[in-house]
Structures are given as C-alpha cells and as structure tokens.
Amino acid sequence: MNNKNKNKKIVTSILSASILSLSLGSMSFAATSSVQDLKGVTGQEPIVKLHAQSTTNGVSNTTIASSKTLTQAQASQMIEKAFQVKSKAANPNQKISRERYIDEVMTALETAGNMPAIDVITPHIKDMKKLNPSFLGSVQVAIVLGIVKLDHNQNLNPKKEITRAEANVILNNAVGYLKKIKSDKAAKPKDKGVRIDVLPHEKKVPQPQKNQNSGDMVSESYAAPSNGEKLYVRTVKMALDQYAGQDVKYFVAIDLFSNGTPLETNSKEVQAEVKRLQGLNYDVNVAKAWTYEGNAQKVDYTYVGAYLTADQLEHFKVSTNYGYAFQFASNGDGSPVEGKAGSITGVSDNSNLAD
C-alpha cells in the first residue's frame, strides 16, 4: 500500500509511532464467574475486570445489567474512576449516546496520558454523516487505535444509546492503551511529546471525509474553499505573523477542491494545475510524507507541496476552477515534513526552521 495516495488526515489524532505499534489485540484479562448476567455479551473479560475494580457500578455484586443504557452521570463516574480525572456530565440524567461516550473517554485518555500528536488516515465509517462534527475527531482516533470497533456493516451507530457492556469494553481498551503509554514513557523518559487537544473545538465544521482511496491531505479541519478562493489554516497564519518581514520561504501543502469536493493528488485536474502553477514560476510539485492508517500501519501518502514567500502566499494566483487551502505538511508522528534549508515548515519555536 506504500507510495499510493491516501485519505485525508486529521491532526485531532494522538500517540507516538512507538506506541501505535503496540496492538490492543494482545491484551488479555482473566475472566471470572463473578458477574452472572453476561451470557451472549461480547467482550465479557473487560466487563468482569472493570467490575472487579469497582469502575462499573452494577446492580449487585454479581450483576451489572449489561444490556441497560447509561446516563451521562453514570458514564462520567465510570470515566473518572478509570482515569482519575474530572469528567463533568452536561446533562446528568440524560442517556448518553455512543458518540458522546467515545468523545468523553478519548478526552479523558488524552488528559491522563498527556499524549503527543500524530496524524492518522481517516477510517471509513459508513454512517459518518450521522456523527456530530464535534465528536468526529475523537471517534476517528478511537477507531484507528482499536479502542472502538465498528459493526459488521462498518457502522458506528453514533446516536444509539450506549449499553453498559459496550461502555465497559471501550473503557477497558482505553485504560489498556493508557497503561502502554505510561510504560513507553518510563522506558523513554526523554521522549516528552507534544500536548494536544483531541477534539477540534476551535476548528470549523469539517467537510465529509472521503474513502480510503483518496489522496488529499488535511491536517486541520476547515470548510472547503469555493472555486477561485484560497484559505490559510491557523498554523500558516501564525507562521506568517511569526516570521513577518523576514526573507524566508514557507514549505506548505496545498489542498485543491473543485466545487467543494477535495481532489486526489494523482488526479488529472491536480496534475494539470501543478503544471499551470509551475508555468507561473511557483516552486511547486508533488511531495511525499508518511502517516498511519488502521491497525497502526505505516504508509506513504502524496500531496502538492510548494515553497512560497509571504508575498506569493498573499497574492497567490488561483484558478477559478479550484479552491485552495494552504497548510503545513506533517508525518504520522506529528513531526513537520523536512523542507529545503531555511524554509519554514510550521510554527512554535525555532525547531520548525529547516537546517
């Protein structure tokens, strides 16, 4: 699958490459017969484990009402016990949906683990249009990391009220992942990582994602630009401010859209537009980086990359046939893609100034 164009990426993702290489599938817990109402329930072992740790509040010492749904208050209580973090319920007595529960678990996981950023390839979710955009990032990361599984039809059923059994399985997977993170950090104390927010709270509503055969790159969520328009994601704007007045070039990725639809890097339209831009003396070409897709597989992806001055970015000569989004390219571990010497590849400190 290497060297093929890949799906849109999101930076709402977490965890380092070394952590991702650890498979959740290897976790095994010894189930006991202490919980008696689990006949026919998937994921019995994690349910028993959490019940024994008093993370799950059952209706008795031997039953947990696994098919019953949870209120937001009950879910928050479970998450607090599991991660030792605060988890406030917006509507305590209201039943909690699958998407909201996943979001709360992933937010607690990020807080408890203080995890570094990576980019991941968007998993295919058949019923993704039903998802609340505010929860999309958390759900996508949870699926890629194996914390959440889709059903046999590749549906998430985001609006469905989550059952105690489902909640326990997801929570156990997340707790197991947290333990692996802490183990990895103990082994590599110098690997500090980068603190991020799992959720795209400050980002515009993302456009519907494409399937795994698309090749465009998106590091931040934004509304697709209309034909003849251009936009700069937040980090590019910050870099322009940070290096204002300096004689530098910015190494940026350019996402192309046609009538709001993202175009694949290897499409005829994108290839023709790259040639047009080269004819206008822009230093632009197809570039390559790497990322992760499902099951932590490391893969290459291609994108349109360009070295542009601040003036070229500001007065970029767009075509009325396409919309343009400018952002910084990154690899799967969140590191900026290496550019030419002296080029700007991101913002923060001087670490994003290419040697």
UniProtKB/TrEMBL annotation:
Residue ranges, annotated region (Disordered): 200-221
Keyword set includes Zinc: no
InterPro entries reported for this sequence: SLH_dom
Domain SLH: 122-185
Record keywords: Signal
Coiled-coil region list: none
Domain of life: Bacteria
Signal peptide: 1-30
Protein name, per record: S-layer homology domain-containing protein
Species name: Paenibacillus nicotianae
